[in-house]
Amino acid sequence: MLKVFLVEDESIVREGLRDNIPWQQWGYQFVGEASDGEMALPLIQKLKPDVLLTDIKMPFMDGLSLSRIVHQEFPDMKIIIISGYDDFEYARQAIAVGVEQYLLKPITRANLQKVLAELKTKIETEREQRNYQEKYQNETRAYEQFSRTNFFVKVFEGRMSVQDIYEEAAKLSLKINAPCYNLLMFSLTEKRGGENGGFESETFARKREEILRYFVRYPEHLVFRWNVNTYGVLIKGNPEQMKDLTERCLENLERICKPAEEDFDWYAAAGEPVERLSMLAECYGKVNHLFAYRFLMPSVHIFTSQVTDNYIPLEASGKIGDIDYAKVEPELIKDFLQQGSHAEIAEFVDGWMHSIQEALKSRLFQNYLVFHIHFVTMAYVESIGYDKKQFLELLGEEQIQEVNLGPEELSQYICNILEKAMELRDRESDNRGRKVLKRALEYIEENYMQETLSLNMVAGEVGVSANYFSAIFSQAMDVTFVEYVTQKRMEKAKKLLRQTEKHSGDIAMEVGYKDPHYFSFVFKKTQGCTPREYRSSAKD
Q: CA angle, corner 154, sides to 148 and 155, nearest 5?
C-alpha cells in the first residue's frame, strides 16, 4: 500500500481530506499531515511517503519551496500541488520543480481519485521496471565478468594502446582514469582431499564471495577474474595514497583468509605503483614475478619486493651435502605443473635456481637436477593420462642427457621440459573441458525453458564446480552462461512470435519466464523492441 502525506494550512480543508477520503480503498495509507512546509519537512524525511499532497500558499514555507527540497532529496516521491489560485505562473513553477499534478480548489472527490489512481499505476510501473532492471543486472553479473576479464588480460599483457584502453573501458563502464595505479593478484584454492569430490565447499565459496564483496565496495578497486582460481585488483588513486591503499588491500585479504587456512590455500602479490596506463604491462610483469614465489615459499602468503628480496640463496661451498633438500622436493615441481601458468615458468625456474645456485657449481648436481626434473614431470604427465612415450616424443632433442651447462643454459633447458609437460596438461584440460562443455550444452538445450535452470544446476549435472564451469564456459563460448541461456530463450520466443498466435504470456512460460512482464522487459532489453512490436514487424 502506498503512503500519502498531506500539507495544508486551512484546517477545515486538511481535516476534510484526511477524514473523508477512503484512502485504503484507493490503495493508500494516510501517514501524516502538517499545516506548513517547515513543519512538514522533518516528518516527510522520517516517514518517506510515496505521494506528497501539498497546498501552494502557506506561511513559513510554501508548497513550491517544499516541493523543490523534497524533489531534490527524494526524486522518486510524487508531488501533487493543490491551490485556489488559477495562475499559470504557479503551474509553470510547479512543473519546473518536478510536480506531477497541479489541482485547483475546490478539489472534487472524483478528480482526486482519478489523479491518485494514475499516480499509483505510475509508481508501481516504475518500481516494477527498477526491480526488473536490478534482477537482470544481477543475473548478467552472476559468477562471471567475461568481458571485463578479457579486457584486463589484454591491458596487462600489453596488447592495447592507451587510446584503445580508454575506448574499451568506456564501453564496459569502467572508470579507469587515475593519477596512479597498482596491481594486486590473489589466488584461492581449496585444499585437496575434501569431502566434496572436487566440488567447492560452501565455506570456500562464502570466503571467496566475502573477498570479492570487499573489493567491489570501494571505487578505487577494479576487481576481475584472471583465471579459474586467480583474481586481479587494479588499485587506483593518488601517488601519495598508493602505499596505504595497497597495504589496506593486503591486510583485509589476510584478515578474511587467515582464519580459514586449514581449508584452502591463498596467496597474494602486489606490484610497484605506476603513473601511466601504458606502464600497466610493466606493473603486471613485476607482480607475475612475485606471484611465482608461491611455489617456492608455500608457507608465505603475501609476496612483495621486500618479502622476496629476503629469499636468500644457498650459502654453501657447492658440496652436495650442503643442499637444502626441501628446495628439490618433487612436490614443489608437481604443484607448479598443476597450478602454474606458462607465463610463470621462467619466473619459477629463475627463483628456484637462485635458491640452489651454489650447488649448481657441481656437475654431479647438475646431472641430478636434470634427471630429477625429467622423472618428476614424467610421473606427472602419466598421472594425467599420458604415457612416457608421448612425453619423450614431445621432448625430442630435450630428452635426458648428461649435461655440462652454465646456469643460463640449464635454466632454459629446464624451462623447455616444464613447457612440454604443461602443453600435455593443457591438452588434457582442453579435452576434459570440451567433454564437460558438450554435456553442458546438451543439458541446456533440453532444459533452457525451465525457469529454475542455473549455472550451479548445470555444473552439478556435468560433475564440476560452478567456478570451474563458469570459467571454461565463458572462455569457450565467448559469452557468459546467463547471456547464452537468454539468447536461447529469446530465439525460441521470436520463433513462437513469428509462427504462432500464442499470447506473449504463454510464450514467456514456454521459454522459461513465469513472470510475463519480466519476459517483456528482457525481450526489449536484448532485442530492442517489445514482443508485440516484434510480432507486428515480422508480419509486415
A: 85
Residue 402 neighbours by CB distance under 10 Å:
9
* 117 & 160 share domain: no
- Give the number of other CB atoms < 10 A from CB of residue 66: 27
Sign of CA dihedral 146, 150, 151, 157: positive
| Residues facing residue 225 across a β-bridge | 231
Q: Is residue 163 situated within a structural domain?
A: yes
First-residue to last-residue Cα distance in the chain: 43
- HEC string of 376-395 equals HHHHHHHHCCCCHHHHHHHH
* Residue 501 domain flag: yes
The DSSP annotation for 208-225 comes to HHHHHHHHHTSTTEEEEE
**Rounded Cα gap, residues 467 and 459, in angstroms:** 9
The torsion region of residue 48 among left (phi > 0), alpha (psi -120 to 50) and beta comes to: left
Residue with cell 650442503: 322
Domain end marker among 86, 113, 140: 140
- Model pLDDT for residues 235-291, shown as the tens digit of each residue: 999 999 999 999 999 999 999 999 888 888 899 999 999 999 999 999 999 998 889
Please give the Cα distance from 427 to 432 (Å, whole number).
9
Give the type of residue at 48. Answer: K
Of 89-93, 139-143, 223-227, 361-365, the range with the highest mean pLDDT is 223-227
The 3-state DSSP class for residue 84 equals: coil
* Alpha carbon distance 206, 302 (integer Å): 21
CATH number at residue 64: 3.40.50.2300
Q: What is the C-alpha to C-alpha distance for residues 130 and 124, in angstroms, rounded to an integer?
A: 10
Grid cell in block for residue 286: 613485476
| Domain end call among 106, 140, 174 | 140
CA distance 224 to 314: 38
Q: What is the pLDDT of residues 489-515, one digit of tens each?
A: 999 999 999 999 999 899 999 999 988
Helices 531-539 and 481-499 pack at an angle, to 10 degrees, of 50
Question: Within a domain: residue 455?
Answer: no
Give the pairing type, strands 264-270 and 180-190: antiparallel
pTM over cut 0.70: no
